[in-house]
Amino acid sequence: MDNQADGSLFQTTADGRSARAILQPYEDIYICPFFEPKSSECRIYMKRPLDCRIYPFALMYNEDGTEIVLGVDTICPFAEAEFETQSFQQYVDYLRAYIETELTTNILADNWALVGPFQETVTIVAVLRKLGRALEQRRQ
Ligand code: SF4
């Protein structure tokens, strides 16, 4: 990633093809620049990025970085409580199918910074091979 010292809200990736929001210091932690701590609201809620929209699901690399996976963040109390239910598993299938549509796969491949690093608290529920292949093609 490039260093960004101009007060911008986003940091462009080294290849210039994607970007991530730059976390901002707040008290003793770092927070999303669009989070309003006083009201606990997102200032861009209607236009929030895909990774925020799908939380507690997460797009990330697996532990050895060889595949892109869909996971569920078990830190989320709702996800932990509902994980085994039929409706939750149906939503997993729906979300996997949505991500692997040609349109969504291409959007994600063009904005690859939305795919995060492996997180130990995330339980992997699907391997996204189509997205992995699309990203690989973009890099060639
Ligand atoms: S929903 Fe996303 S963009 Fe909005 S405050 Fe939370 S992390 Fe930031």
Give me the secondary-structure topology.
Blueprint: E1 10-12, E2 19-21, E3 24-26, E4 29-31, E5 35-36, E6 41-42, H1 50-54, E7 57-61, E8 68-73, H2 77-82, H3 86-99, H4 102-110, E9 122-127, H5 129-139
Helix pairs in contact: 4-5
Describe what this molecule looks like in 3D.
Helices cover 32% and strands 24% of the residues. With 140 residues, it is α+β, with helices and mostly antiparallel strands. It folds into two domains: 1-44, no CATH class; 49-139, no CATH class. The strands form four sheets. It has a three-stranded antiparallel sheet with strand order 7-8-9. It has a two-stranded antiparallel ribbon with strand order 1-2. It has a two-stranded antiparallel sheet with strand order 3-4. A hairpin with a 2-residue loop joins strand 3 (24-26) and strand 4. Bound molecules: iron/sulfur cluster (SF4).
| Helix coverage percent | 25-40%
CA-based gyration radius: 16 Å
Q: Quote the beta fraction.
A: 15-25%
Total discrete domains? 2
Structure summary, number of beta strands: 9
Biggest sheet architecture: 3 strands, antiparallel
| Small-molecule binders | iron/sulfur cluster
Derived structural class:
alpha+beta
Task: Give the strand line-up of the largest sheet.
Answer: 7-8-9
pLDDT < 50 stretches: 1-5
C-alpha end-to-end distance:
19 Å
**Which term fits the overall shape?**
globular
User: How are helices and strands ordered from N to C?
Assistant: EEEEEEHEEHHHEH
What do the pLDDT scores average to? 91
